[in-house]
Structure to design on (324 residues):
């Protein structure tokens, strides 16, 4: 079993890198003996999950890893796991609940569960909207690294306007995202559709990073400030349940996702890694952690009607609801 954890940790380490890496670097950052790393890499190469580049003396992901990734997309676990959670949320609060993922500077809606008697909204499955204007987009953006947000919104041309409201510059967006982090949830009012407002919370992956935004949309005149707080709490509880269903976890206490290297070492050895004390350097040779070169990428989801396919009869259907 430890060998299986170590092999999976190697795969995870390579998946988080922008390109192939030397076996010695992978072994060092996972705390593995070089002989163990080489033996595991040989098995991964034989299985097609890794590839050896002899001229570069590096290892990268193989075609088998790509096949696993595309199988994940085909099975659409995010939408399948989210649908019953959103259904219970919509039933409990009486408003429409939806889930979206970040796709560049936009959010792509992948699940929508309409509240009983509620009208259709612009947030239908497959629709894309400017992330900075939506509550679900802000819930995700607020917990991304500042450099990531800056790369997505480098200048004023990146800010799409729908109804003359919402952030129109990076400084305005930063202030809005700071408010989201302080409140613990995101909101928008009339910035997507006049007369409607939304509250949202982030859904996180196993590293604590945001992978989706879960929101509730309602007619603005119907819900006062205390009521919006209750809806935000309900959305937050639903987002926390979906995070658990995905095998995710909340961020560390300071709001920064847990260090990738600590997680990789935990995966490799099956024991918690010691607290990070910052990066170290050796003269003449870079000691930068492999994981520090990770380029975070938002989830891509194919905007097809398949996303909205009902759950199979064998899927989990817990009956928990959220009081409001």
């Amino acid at each position: 079993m430890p060998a299986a954890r170590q092999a999976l940790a190697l795969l995870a380490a390579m998946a988080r890198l922008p390109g192939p890496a030397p076996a010695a670097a992978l072994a060092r950052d996972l705390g593995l003996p070089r002989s163990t790393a080489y033996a595991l890499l040989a098995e991964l190469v034989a299985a097609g999950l890794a590839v050896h580049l002899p001229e570069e003396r590096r290892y990268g992901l193989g075609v088998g890893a790509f096949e696993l990734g595309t199988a994940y997309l085909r099975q659409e676990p995010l939408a399948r796991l989210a649908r019953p959670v959103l259904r219970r949320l919509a039933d409990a609060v009486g408003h429409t609940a939806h889930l979206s993922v970040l796709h560049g500077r936009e959010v792509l809606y992948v699940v929508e569960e309409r509240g009983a008697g509620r009208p259709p909204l612009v947030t239908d499955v497959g629709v894309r909207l400017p992330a900075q204007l939506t509550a679900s987009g802000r819930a995700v953006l607020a917990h991304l690294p500042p450099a990531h947000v800056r790369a997505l919104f480098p200048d004023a041309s990146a800010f799409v306007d729908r109804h003359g409201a919402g952030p129109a510059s990076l400084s305005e967006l930063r202030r809005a995202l700071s408010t989201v982090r302080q409140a613990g949830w995101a909101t928008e009012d009339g910035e997507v559709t006049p007369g409607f407002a939304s509250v949202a919370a982030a859904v996180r992956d196993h590293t604590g990073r945001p992978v989706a935004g879960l929101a509730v949309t309602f007619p603005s005149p119907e819900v006062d400030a205390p009521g919006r707080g209750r809806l935000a709490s309900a959305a937050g509880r639903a987002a926390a349940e979906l995070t658990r269903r995905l095998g995710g976890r909340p961020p560390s206490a300071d709001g920064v996702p847990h260090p990738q290297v600590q997680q990789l070492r935990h995966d490799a050895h099956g024991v918690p890694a010691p607290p990070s004390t910052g990066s170290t350097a050796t003269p003449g040779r870079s000691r930068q952690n492999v994981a520090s070169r990770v380029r975070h990428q938002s989830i891509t989801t194919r905007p097809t009607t398949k996303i909205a396919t009902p759950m199979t009869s064998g899927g989990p259907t817990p009956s928990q609801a959220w009081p409001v």
Summary: The chain has a mean pLDDT of 79. Residues 1-75 form a domain with the Arc Repressor Mutant, subunit A fold (CATH 1.10.10.10). DSSP finds ten helices and eight strands in the chain. The first helix runs from residue 2 to 15.
